Predict the 3D structure of the following.
Amino acid sequence: MKTMGLSELVLVRPKIFPSDEATARASGANDILERATVADNLPDAIADCGFVVGASARLRGLQWPVVDPRRCAELVWQQIPQNRVALVMGPEASGLTNEDLARCQQLVHIPTQPEYGSLNLAMAVQVLCYELRMAVDAGRVQSEEVREAPLATAAELEGFHAHLERVLRDAQFLHPDHPRQLKLKLRRLFHRARLDQNEINILRGALAALDPSKTSRGNDEP
Amino acid sequence: MKTMGLSELVLVRPKIFPSDEATARASGANDILERATVADNLPDAIADCGFVVGASARLRGLQWPVVDPRRCAELVWQQIPQNRVALVMGPEASGLTNEDLARCQQLVHIPTQPEYGSLNLAMAVQVLCYELRMAVDAGRVQSEEVREAPLATAAELEGFHAHLERVLRDAQFLHPDHPRQLKLKLRRLFHRARLDQNEINILRGALAALDPSKTSRGNDEP
């Protein structure tokens, strides 16, 4: 919950609370356990909520509206500005009862393999909270890699390819009779890399060092 | 893993394996543990994989391409038809090392609260597997550029980088005193290009032709 930005926990008739084991496991998230409240029953727990979503593993025969976690997150965020929203999860072993589910306006089901479909409670909470978090960011975490330099301009790329081709011709790797396809393949490969200006400089430095026709050939020559 | 439809697990130097505790906890998913294989190191574990994604909690200062789990799932499904794909997760306490991450073509980061951002390993696995499952259902997998050959495997990429580094060292372009950053930049650039096997062959052919230490140096030498 806390890693995904949720902070409010209500426990319905917990067997043990506070629990030393729970506190020990909640490394760094004790504040959520400390602020957790306890309710005698589900209706009390969700009494002030305008939108109540129940998590259900069972789908067969259920005739309630069911969405997947992604759509659930959208629906929750639509309600958040005006309503308190509850996400109701059942106990580990049994899940929510039909009576519990009937108190929810919306059910959410996490898609799983049909033949092995039961998630742990903790896993189900993680997935639902993750989708809530993703819906806030809406993919904004996505970064292209951070570049130290602007992308190479078309002219700089041309300069690099001319240099590369000249050096590979001098090294007799590119042959005048069938150079075109190979040159195109090299171009495509480096286009895919979307070279920046530093990288062009690195590659051109490497080409200069490898150039077989350079006058100061290196230490291995007389 | 199993609830989300994944079945192949490779463990790198597990402390205990097989483990009674792990088997007991894997209720109903023992088959995955039974079929799990053990590798001595990460390069061995990913050797036959064409697309290697590493999970990273740390973003600061990292300049590798990073995507969120949703985009990661799209990228994985794009590669699946032609390539073996590895999703690499670090150990619980420490995560992947920088050296591990440098072997991944792509990093994935699960968005979290900035002030409390560290997910348990199990939770991170759940989120990434969940997104892979959701992406199957969504069925909206974009197609990448058509390749003439499968992507280079991790072992082939290592072979290329070793060749490149050796040749550049012989050409005195890579210096022993500050080689690391430059080597990483070269890796990153070629990771971004997602080299296929034809391209690896082209580049290694070019390196062989440019190798300053080759005996048959070329026409311009006596």
Remarks:
- Residues 10-137 of chain A form a domain with the Alpha/beta knot fold (CATH 3.40.1280.10).
- Chain A has nine helices and six strands.
- The beta strands of chain A are 10-12, 37-39, 51-55, 66-67, 85-88, 106-108.
